[in-house]
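Reviewer comment 2.1 asked that we show a complete input and output for one of the modelled complexes. We chose the 2-acetamido-2-deoxy-beta-D-glucopyranose case, as it is the one discussed in the main text.
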Amino acid sequence: MGFVPHRTCLICVVPARRPHRVQPQCGGRPAPGARGVSLFLFLFARGVSLSLVPRAAPDLAADREALLAFRDAVGPHLPWDASAASPCGWLGVLCDRTGARVVQLRLPGANLAGAVPLGTLGNLTALWTLSLRANALSGGIPADIGACAELRYLYLHGNRLEGEIPEGFFGLRLLQRLDLSDNLISGGVSPEFNKLRRLAALYLQNNRLNGTLPADLDLPNLRVLNLSNNGLSAII
Ligand SMILES: *[C@@H]1O[C@H](CO)[C@@H](O)[C@H](O)[C@H]1NC(C)=O
Ligand SMILES: *[C@@H]1O[C@H](CO)[C@@H](O)[C@H](O)[C@H]1NC(C)=O
Ligand SMILES: *[C@@H]1O[C@H](CO)[C@@H](O)[C@H](O)[C@H]1NC(C)=O
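Response of the prediction step:
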């Protein structure tokens, strides 16, 4: 790299001695590259301090907390042993082979009711399969569902979900099967669906979708599409 470190600034960004008066010490015009050096040191210093603080990286403990919060909100009757350190043996919960993360949550027809809060399902970021069909979930599809970027199979049909499909939803680029049928979902069929390139089956029937179907809907792997019984027009 071609920059010459600016000595005075190198000293003044070390926050040890005079954390509140770093700027004046630099004095005069910063040499070319000084800003880069300061930024580098700033990031370095932050890196050091962050490593001393416990991190909230997604892990099994975080998945467990998310599941318990989900249960509190929509299924307090679920027979999950909250004293267990690992959620991997809980009804409907499956972990990966190493037991590092929760990869499946399947609770069809489990009498779940109410709205799914943010920071519950959306925190289960290693999920491949989520099946909550045939329950009484209401409110919107949680807006943070897009954080579950590993999802392949998403079954939310047969609930009372309402409102529009949230924007973040279209971050679920690996989705292969999506069933949102038999809900109260409204709004249009967004051209954003084109981002779900791997989608092979899309079930949206029996909702309150309206508007015009995007003319350029292009899903190369789609084999099943059901849009019946909505308020959609211009289906050719
Ligand atoms: C979900 O993740 C967020 C961000 O890391 C965190 O603040 C929140 O507490 C988590 N929710 C639960 C129920 O653990
Ligand atoms: C779709 O329905 C909503 C009400 O749910 C309405 O406000 C909107 O105008 C409708 N859009 C179209 C294109 O019909
Ligand atoms: C699409 O959904 C409608 C309404 O539920 C149903 O009657 C129809 O059989 C479905 N079609 C296919 C191809 O699955």
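Confidence is low (pLDDT under 50) at residues 1-54. We note this here for comparison with the apo prediction described in Section 3.2.
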